[in-house]
């Protein structure tokens, strides 16, 4: 659930809490009947009351559907690599991403790399298929095609060796060619 949906959920929860307190006040005769009956009579027939009720309903439906949806391609925090007689082998997406970043960063001429690991279920199997998207920042003067091919080959080789996955799709894109100094950020080891 993204930040926007979390904010919606917080507001929705606060409104629901306020409505619950009001309902408790009505049911436990804390609020005089004349007062709340007058407010309800005022609200009926008002278009803004219907618009507010419709918005409240639509936000509730949206949050309900968000609770049961998963992002396509991300699917979760783990990838099922092998299913055999000994059981299933799962690896976290973060672990695969760190391997990809380490390998891409080790290639000559690569200044920076950003990786996205996607996976999808193989039909008729419980194993997942991996797809890796890597955005590179290269040093100037480095041959782009050869460097991209080398990064792709190194990623495939490392994932085959470390994870035992042979058919990894690697999409390499060069975002920038620059010799400017990159901001310091923690490297994945």
Tell me what you see in this structure.
By secondary structure, the protein is of the alpha+beta class. It has two domains: 3-68, no CATH class; 78-177, Alpha-Beta Plaits (2-Layer Sandwich), CATH 3.30.70.1350. The protein is built from five helices and five strands. Helix 5 links the parallel strand 4 (128-138) and strand 5. The chain is elongated, with a radius of gyration of 27 Å.
Shape: elongated
CATH architecture name of the largest domain: 2-Layer Sandwich
Biggest β-sheet: strands ordered side by side in the sheet = 3-4-5
Q: Helicity level, as a percent range?
A: 40-55%
Biggest sheet layout: 3 strands, mixed
Report the CATH C-level class of the largest domain.
Alpha Beta
Tell me the β content: 15-25%
Going by CATH, the homologous superfamily of the largest domain would be Cation efflux protein, cytoplasmic domain
Using only C-alpha atoms, the radius of gyration works out to: 27 Å
Topology:
Layout lengths: L2 H25 L5 H11 L3 H22 L9 E7 L2 E6 H14 L3 E12 L6 E11 L5 H20 L5 E9 L12
Parallel strand pairs: 4-5
Antiparallel strand pairs: 1-2, 3-4
Helix pairs in contact: 1-3, 4-5
